[in-house]
Batch of 4 targets.
Target 1
Amino acid sequence: MSVYTPVSESQLAAWLKDYPVGAPAALEPIEAGIENTNYFVTTGQGRYVLTLFERLPAAEIPFYLNLMAHLARHGVPCPAPVANHADRLLSELNGKPAALVTRLPGRSVERPGELECAELGALLARMHLAGRSYPAYLENPRGPRWWRAAARELQPLLDAGQKRLLEAELGAQSGRRHPELPRGPVHADLFRDNALFQDGRLSGVIDFYFAGVDCLLLDLAVCANDWCLVDPAHDLRLAAPRVRALLGAYHALRPLTAAEAGAWPRLLRAAALRFWISRLHDFHLPRAGELVRVHDPEHFRAILEQRAAEIAPAWLA
């Protein structure tokens, strides 16, 4: 959610004439994130988020927008895309594919506890259950195929230790597609800053633009590696009470299988590998932008090494 494509107030006003939301009253760039250009937009009829898609192939964007619309119709608190007067969720602004979605209330929690992790687990289960009836298909765009392509690009830019770890983990994950695990649409990027809380309750999940079809367990692994660390700055072990709160609340709605229990350690490593590679890619091969936020790749290198060293990471039981 960086700003790569500037939008002026006059450009926004002209674009919004095609939408049933009224004239704009405020336009504010969103600085967090790294993938798309995003603005908060306020009109006389409500608060919205404007997204200009910078890298996503135009053919893939309907998968994300229609998924959010599908989940919102099923009671999942996520941004609802707004259709224009031609009944289209996607249009163009400043030469980029663009969409307008509702802005959800609340704010992210920096230090989640067991209660917040339980709220997250329950919401993930609801989201996965609702996703079973979503008919569109898009393979996880940041899955193993992307890992290997990005690793080839990064190879000349890494030091010897990074190369060894990357090659070893790609080898360990090679061919592990886990066909025995339940699959469906996953968020795949549900970090703390993509969940909003209000009055102690989870009020919304945002930023579905890394979503795709994969093992449902992957969403839980991504969340555990961010929400359940003993101390994100100093101790990257999993805090067992928070992991059990996350998994227990999920399991109560969508029971986890024995196969998922067996795959949990490998999925935790896969989730760490995915974000280490993406952060390496953004660090070494950045894009120019007005406001660009690049995350430190070493954080997820350390998480990956920790998960690879753990004998029995925390699980439900």
Target 2
Amino acid sequence: MSGSRLRFGAFIAPFHPLHENPTLALERDLELVQWMDRLGYDEAWIGEHHSAGYELIASPELFIATAAERTRHIRLGTGVSSLPYHHPLMLADRMNQLDHITRGRVMLGAGPGALPSDAFMMGIPVATQRDRMDEALDCIVRLVRGETVTHKSDWFELREARLQMSPYSRPSIEMAVASQVSPTGATAAGRHGLGLLSIGATSAGGFNALASNWAIAEQSARENGKTVDRAKWRLVGPMHIAETREQARADVAFGLKDWLYYFTEVAALPLAVDGESDPVDALIATGLAVVGTPDDAIAQIARLEQQSGGFGAYLMLDHNWSEWDRKRKSYELMARYVFPRFQGSNDNREASLAWARDNRPAFLGEQVAAVGARVARHIEARGAGDIAPEILEAMGLNKPAAG
């Protein structure tokens, strides 16, 4: 892996089926980030969507401001801000304010916008979204890095624009660009030396494109005099784990069907899941998702490591496949049993245990000798009358009288 400690987090779109109370659904999303903070997760990325009914968070900035008040350590990113929907100065200024409010815990994730229905409502041609993302990102990067920007576009204008506050984070907040299969995100990340968010890392196309997309990012960085860091490369994929595989399958019977319906019938990102087979079997067989145990999660991350050549953070694509208490349990099991495997948390413990085990005969001999010497001194000073015969026998100082 890149470095000795893989980071963990979640990519929270979120996905809430229509039969739930939306107010309570949003509250649970906030509670999830609080739970992650207590468990030691490193980061949470919050989506921006405006249609289709499942992905309820319209403003990741508002969500992040609320979550920041309820948490202490976890870093919070926009996952992602759809750049064609925002004037670059306004978005940069809001993120700069959040950088101060959160004391440097905020990150900006950038993308073109995932739902064509969002763009349609705003009169934005889908064909222009990626070009507009590139154009806006070029300006935002300069703004958050303290430059004064003048730029005239067919959809926005900047006149000697600059942020009125210096950033809390220096030289600026961390930024990352979303990538699926196409080279758009990787090229943009390399052009500016930003992080990369591989959102579909476990889909067939996304998985196969991991190595090539990183190569594209590196090439783009070289061409623009920048560098990219694998530690800032985040891979996203869905998981639900439980104590046993059978329990995990029973858990996801609660909500997996609703999630699959959204992706196969509504969202413009269809999943290649065989409708004739068991959906859990199909998700596992294609490598798209883990429904199993911590060992299965470990195997999936190791598979991604091998395919990619190394990355900095694994983000679970958050979902609501299970009841709330079982979802919390899945996140807990990840923290308890999967994190240590990739963070070296127990390396020193294992070395210490092995050293104590291998030297046990010598340590035990010294312990027995030390105790024996103290018992002998006691006998010499006071006699053996007040010492239990079993202790004397263990020390080899006396034998119990024959009965």
Target 3
Amino acid sequence: MAEFNSVAKAYAGKNGAEKEVFRDVSFMIERGDRIALVGVNGAGKSTLIKLLAGSEPLTHGEFRLGHNAQADYFAQDQYKELNPDARILDDLGEISPGSSQTELRNLLGCFLFQEDDVFKKIDVLSGGERGRYALLRLLLHPANFLLLDEPTNHLDLRAKDVLLNALMAYTGTVVFVSHDRYFIDRLATRVFEVGDGKVEVFPGNYEDYLWRKQGGSARLAETIAASTKRGESPIAASSNSAANAQLTDGDATAAPKIKRLNPIKRKQMQDRVRELEEEISLIEGTVAQCETGLQNFVSADQSQRQSQTLDRHKAALASLTREWEDLSQALQESD
């Protein structure tokens, strides 16, 4: 869908000195990716979104959009692009002329515009209301590559759920910035950490990202390597490592405590297990296609790209499988 090759970005600073945001950044965004950009404020997340949208020029390097990729960019100040003199119901009707008044009002209601609110002019809306409405307009007829900068700002829980469900059902590619951990956890299939002039890529959702940042993958690899030397099954070692991770620091020899789950938490975990099974099945199919594609040699460059894509899908598959195993084990132990 999109590719960065050795990209650098810098702004002119005071006294002629440049302020560097990115240096030698390379990555590839695949079709169907849902990528969360994370990092401290000022790290360059919004700048990266703007580079992908083409609204900011590169300083160095190359940025390529994939064939038939059509980007739609939602900026934090997207509301400034709206017609201030239009009523929101009329404006939405122009975007979707095939929708009835009832359908339009239902859509507006999902984004907290109810009753007489739908007849308000855009000019009298608050900043938060304009942001919500601009987001609704974007989602009504999205392109196949959505770039969303802080879309959850000014949304209450219900509106966030509407947005989350819409994006999870969306079949295109999404790159987004959000500080809402739950939103990132449910939506992201990969996490790009932005900071210190770099972009580091992590497979999986926000929990997977934190697990890797805290050294979980390294500890798991060490455990599996040690168990293999002892002749144990790597699968058993992985399970033992997950169990040991639940021990308290004060008692590393104690058995992990089994917690009873409340019905709501259990239902959430069961729903997530079903989602993971569907995602794992899809990625397994993609992996098989990639492996088949590698058997048909076209060029060394294409084979390298296919190998890189295959590696990313395999990493994502391993991450999803690990999450599925952990959740399944937790559900079983709480019975």
Target 4
Amino acid sequence: MPITSITTDPSQLTLTAIGDFPVSVERLWAAWADPRQLERFWGPPTWPATFTRHELRPGGQSHYHMTGPKGETSRGYWFIDEAEAPRRFALRDGFANEDGRPNKDFPETRMEVVFLATPTGSRFVSTSTFPNLAALEQLVAMGMVEGLTAAMGQLDGVLADLRDLSREFATEATVLDDTHVQITRVLRASLQQVWRAHQEAALIRRWMLGPDGWTMPECETANHVGETYRYLWENAADGSRFGFTGELLEQEAPWRAVTTERMIGTDGPGTVNELTLTPLPGGKTRLTLVITYPSKELRDLILGTGMVGGMETSYARLEATT
């Protein structure tokens, strides 16, 4: 049985959605924790959602937009205050401007989602609490109940799909728009292991090699904001070399790092890479890398080099290294 009820309680300033499903609590949690699965039910069918950032952890953030039938967009954010996988999470939910900042013209709500085991599977109870009655009435008038009903009605199909987190490990690239590409990979390694593999030169040299036949003779890491890194690869067959350099712009260890990246020896604009790591049940970690390109042409050029296949080879080595 999918969504069983969506109700409002003006006296408590709440809107509550309840859904029952014939799957485990862990499977139900995974549908909310994985942005690719979350996208398939968070937006109504005519307004599908795209998450460009999703960190279901205390202190994490999620940024998304919904695209309407005529190409119009509506943006939103989550600020995660609490998360106890796979039992519950609590967050602040609101509308966002084009730059991703909170849109103060609309109220921010607090949403708590609790996952419970039942005799037939599992249940989620999502409770949104509004700051005042006017805020509740405003969002209900905007169609929040109808939109949530249509959106959550898709969750049954997501859970019935056998392509869940425990079965998908291959590196995937999703083109978000003309200048943004999102890389995802579920790794059979813990959060701390994956973070260390991106921080320690000795480990980086063992896995970040792309296709067979390459070595990394130079590996200078950036472990503090403002530091620069330098990676240089060499082909064992012909001695040819190439490399990248960049600066560490932001870091929240062991969850997130933002860096610039530019090919050594070139003067053109480079990319900005946002790495996010999310722990998953069973000692796994979801790696998400959002790459911002300076142009669509450069995006297509780099994707056409076989980048994704090389990354998959490297991530498979990372699993063997940890």
